[in-house]
Each structure stands twice: as structure tokens, then as C-alpha cells.
């Protein structure tokens, strides 16, 4: 059951991050400054409703897996999860706060897309590795 839960969480974040990478973040550039700030105030809680439970679930599942056995796989997966958290809160949360406040530039939006490749690669690697390990 834990394997299925882990795979579902990883798959959910895999799909979500690719949608954000290919659709959501690139669309931000097409909004007016006021339009994006207004939309972003609605978008952020809505996407958080999906992201927060998935990320928390993933952290708990990989934390529990690490407690069961400290192998190369469990340690590496837990590190990947921690890296996603680190990047999310140090890189993306500040940029999202700037967008909500209307205090951003076109470069900020370009950085969202470019830097989000870090999370896209990390979550994709985690999902594919977990899938292959089953």
C-alpha cells in the first residue's frame, strides 16, 4: 500500500509540475500587470489546495520510508524531496509574493519558467525512479 501511495503522490506532482512548466508559468507573460496580480491572488490559493497536500504527503511518505531503511534509494529520494522544498521556499515563494504584490518585471516571469526546470527535473526524476523501482 505504501508503494502505491508513494507512486500516486509522485505522479500527482509529476503531472502538476509539467502543467505548471508548460502551461501556467508561460501564460503569465500574456497578462497585463494588474491582470496578473489579480489573477495570481486567485491562482495561488487554488493551486496550493492541490500542491500543499501532495508535497506534505510526499515528505511524510519518504520520511517514513527513510525511517524503515536507510539505503541509497531511500536517502537519495528523501534528499530529492528536501531539495524541492528548499527550491520552492527560497526561489519560488518570494517570486510569487512579488507577483501578488504587483512588484515584478518581465524578467521575474521568465525566471519562473527557467528556474522551474529545477523542480520539473527533480519531481520527474523522483517519479520515474520510484516507478522503475516497483
Task: Describe, in plain words, how this protein is organized in 3D.
- The longest helix is centred in the middle third of the chain and has 36 residues, at 33-68.
- The mean pLDDT is 96.
- The N and C termini lie close together (12 Å).
- The chain has four helices and no strands.
- It has helices at 2-27, 33-68, 72-101, 106-133.
Describe the structure concisely for a colleague:
By secondary structure, the protein is an all-alpha fold. It has helices at residues 2-27, 33-68, 72-101, 106-133. It starts with a helix and ends with a helix.
**Individual helix count:** 4
Which term fits the overall shape? elongated
Tell how many strands the DSSP assignment holds.
0
Largest beta-sheet details:
none
As residue ranges, the low-confidence spans are none
Could you estimate the helical fraction of the residues in percent? over 70%
Mean pLDDT across the residues is 96
| Helix-strand makeup class | mainly alpha
Computed over alpha carbons, the radius of gyration is 16 Å
Oligomer: single chain
Cα end-to-end separation: 12 Å
- What is the beta-strand fraction? under 5%
Amino acid at each position: 500500500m505504501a508503494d502505491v501511495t508513494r507512486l500516486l503522490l509522485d505522479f500527482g506532482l509529476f503531472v502538476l509540475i509539467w502543467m505548471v512548466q508548460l502551461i501556467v508559468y508561460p501564460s503569465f507573460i500574456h497578462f497585463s500587470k494588474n491582470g496578473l496580480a489579480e489573477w495570481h491572488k486567485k491562482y495561488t490559493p487554488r493551486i496550493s489546495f492541490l500542491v500543499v497536500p501532495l508535497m506534505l504527503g510526499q515528505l511524510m511518505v519518504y520520511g517514513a520510508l527513510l525511517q524503515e531503511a536507510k539505503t541509497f534509494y531511500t536517502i537519495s529520494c528523501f534528499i530529492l524531496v528536501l531539495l524541492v522544498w528548499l527550491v520552492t521556499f527560497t526561489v519560488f515563494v518570494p517570486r510569487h509574493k512579488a507577483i501578488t504584490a504587483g512588484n515584478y518585471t518581465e524578467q521575474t516571469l521568465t525566471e519562473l519558467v527557467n528556474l522551474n526546470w529545477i523542480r520539473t527535473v527533480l519531481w520527474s526524476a523522483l517519479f520515474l525512479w520510484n516507478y522503475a523501482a516497483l
